[in-house]
């Protein structure tokens, strides 16, 4: 095997785009999808995770059911449900409106929702565990000084839990970039899809898959550094260690 | 709303059953192979031999930083090349989708099992290994009789959870048109033009299996915790 790096600067079947350009466009879709889905997952995941720690039984059960549903169906099947099944079972007007989004936006928005909600269930699990790992006195202390339940969460529990779950969240954040590749099955031309296309056009498999592999490694390292930075910046001396 | 026809499901059940069987086979083989290979990787990562540890860590980190779909593309391309190289053929030798799928999942999941097992080994108190050495155990005997049995006992719930994820991951074989459970459902769904029925059914089956297994794991974990608390 001999690597031919010049292949990346040759023109792809896409007019005016080199193979390097193709891969970079794939990377852009991967990053856009992963980041937006991450935002959705954080919002929904935090809400569901908090709901599962509240003193309302029906809310806890609802939150538990949400997590079980999204965790026990493979991501790929969930994407198919959003993409192929949902528009058909909704009333025709809404279904047709959903289907009216052409590629690349239709598949992209579907993947965004699918990947975001899939990840939100995993984040909800971390958030719940993080809140439950805090000493019970924290919650009682907040309530005892006259804070409402909402204030206790806002000012006492969530700031502490958030710092504590940074390591597992780092791993979820890295996973969402990898999981975004599943979106290729519904037609999002992200990094893995572009690498596979380049492979089919050029038969330079080592170069095509190799480039994608290197890019994913760089993404993983970047995410890791970013989260380590956040962990350092948000660290409150003494507070967390003393709690354990 | 469209008309739903669930009788198409009934007719396709035998075919779907074969697909499910294939998914389960891959899960079991990759679990067994992944745990064996993952244990070796974990021992290598914890080894005193720096080079061995570096190579093992490189493999694990590489596998864990790329998407499974990309790994599947890699392995389906590389296996025929490697087989050709092994038997001295001058062009790639195909060994079939099924066998390649077994190998792909074993190699990929081993990296994830390795990290679980490594954590399990590190959780065994250091004194245990020292005690084994003091009794005159060799490294292999120490691992075989002292460290690994304790590590595995505590790890079983995590290993099973990882296996449930592995089972869900087998659906990704769809990308190489394999006839796993989802692949089978997708093929009949497209043939009959019944995507809604088949994908909904597939989701329900995956949910039923994974939900039940995760409940079993949870119950087992609770029992394990209780035993530890009593000990």
TrEMBL record, chain A:
GO BP: amino acid transport
Keyword Cell membrane in record: yes
Its membrane topology: Multi-pass membrane protein
One cellular component term from this protein's GO annotations in UniProt: ATP-binding cassette (ABC) transporter complex
Matches recorded under CDD domains: TM_PBP2
Entry's family note: Belongs to the binding-protein-dependent transport system permease family. HisMQ subfamily.
Protein name: Glutamate ABC transporter permease
Organism: Pseudomonas alkylphenolica
Source lineage: Bacteria, Pseudomonadati, Pseudomonadota, Gammaproteobacteria, Pseudomonadales
From TrEMBL, chain B:
Pfam family, one: BPD_transp_1
Boundaries of every ABC transmembrane type-1 domain copy: 20-217
Superkingdom of the organism of origin: Bacteria
GO biological process: amino acid transport
Membrane topology: Multi-pass membrane protein
Annotated transmembrane regions: 20-44, 65-88, 100-124, 145-167, 198-217
The keyword Transmembrane helix appears for this protein: yes
Alphabetically ordered keywords of this record: Amino-acid transport, Cell membrane, Membrane, Transmembrane, Transmembrane helix, Transport
Keyword field contains Cytoplasm: no
GO molecular function: transmembrane transporter activity
Main location: membrane
GO cellular component: ATP-binding cassette (ABC) transporter complex
Compartments, record wording: Cell inner membrane; Cell membrane
Self-association and partners: The complex is composed of two ATP-binding proteins (GltL), two transmembrane proteins (GltJ and GltK) and a solute-binding protein (GltI).
PANTHER family in the record: GLUTAMATE_ASPARTATE IMPORT PERMEASE PROTEIN GLTK, MEMBRANE COMPONENT OF AMINO ACID ABC TRANSPORTER
Role played: Part of the ABC transporter complex GltIJKL involved in glutamate and aspartate uptake. Probably responsible for the translocation of the substrate across the membrane.
Name under which the protein is recorded: Glutamate/aspartate import permease protein GltK
Native species: Pseudomonas alkylphenolica
């Amino acid at each position: 095997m001999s690597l031919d790096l010049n292949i990346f600067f040759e023109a792809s079947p896409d007019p005016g785009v080199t193979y390097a350009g193709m891969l970079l466009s794939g990377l852009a879709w991967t990053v856009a999808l992963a980041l937006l889905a991450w935002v959705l997952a954080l919002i929904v995941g935090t809400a569901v995770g908090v709901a599962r720690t509240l003193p309302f039984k029906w809310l806890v059960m609802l939150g538990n059911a949400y997590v079980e549903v999204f965790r026990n169906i493979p991501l790929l099947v969930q994407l198919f449900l959003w993409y192929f099944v949902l528009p058909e079972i909704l009333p025709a007007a809404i279904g047709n409106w959903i289907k009216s989004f052409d590629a690349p936006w239709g598949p992209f928005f579907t993947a965004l929702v699918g990947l975001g909600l899939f990840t939100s269930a995993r984040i909800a699990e971390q958030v719940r565990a993080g809140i439950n790992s805090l000493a019970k006195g924290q919650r009682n202390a907040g309530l005892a000084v006259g804070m409402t339940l909402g204030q206790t969460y806002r000012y006492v529990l969530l700031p502490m839990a958030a710092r504590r779950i940074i390591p597992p969240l780092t791993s979820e954040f890295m996973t969402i970039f990898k999981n975004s590749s599943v979106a290729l099955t519904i037609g999002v031309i992200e990094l893995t899809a572009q690498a596979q296309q380049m492979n089919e056009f050029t038969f330079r498999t080592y170069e095509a898959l190799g480039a994608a592999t290197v890019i994913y490694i760089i993404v993983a390292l970047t995410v890791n550094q970013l989260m380590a930075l956040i962990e350092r910046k948000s660290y409150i001396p003494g507070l967390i260690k003393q709690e354990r | 709303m469209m008309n739903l026809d669930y009788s198409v499901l009934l007719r396709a059940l035998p075919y779907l059953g074969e697909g499910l069987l294939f998914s389960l086979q891959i899960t079991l083989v990759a679990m067994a192979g992944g745990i064996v290979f993952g244990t070796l990787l974990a021992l290598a990562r914890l080894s005193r031999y720096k080079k061995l540890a570096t190579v093992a860590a490189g493999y694990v980190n590489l596998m864990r930083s790329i998407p499974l779909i990309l790994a599947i593309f890699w392995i389906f391309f590389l296996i025929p090349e490697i087989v050709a190289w092994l038997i001295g053929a001058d062009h790639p030798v195909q060994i079939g989708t099924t066998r390649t799928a077994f190998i792909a999942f074993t190699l990929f999941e081993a990296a994830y099992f390795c990290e679980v097992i490594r954590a399990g080994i590190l959780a065994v108190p250091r004194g245990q290994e020292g005690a084994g050495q003091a009794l005159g155990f060799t490294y292999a005997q120490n691992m075989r009789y002292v460290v690994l049995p304790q590590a595995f006992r505590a790890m079983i719930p995590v290993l099973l959870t990882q296996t449930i994820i592995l089972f869900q991951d087998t659906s990704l074989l769809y990308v190489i048109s394999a006839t796993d459970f989802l692949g089978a459902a997708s093929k009949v769904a497209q043939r009959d033009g019944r995507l809604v029925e088949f994908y909904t059914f597939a989701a329900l089956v995956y949910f039923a299996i994974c939900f039940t297994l995760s409940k079993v794991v949870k119950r087992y974990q609770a029992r394990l915790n209780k035993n530890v608390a009593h000990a």
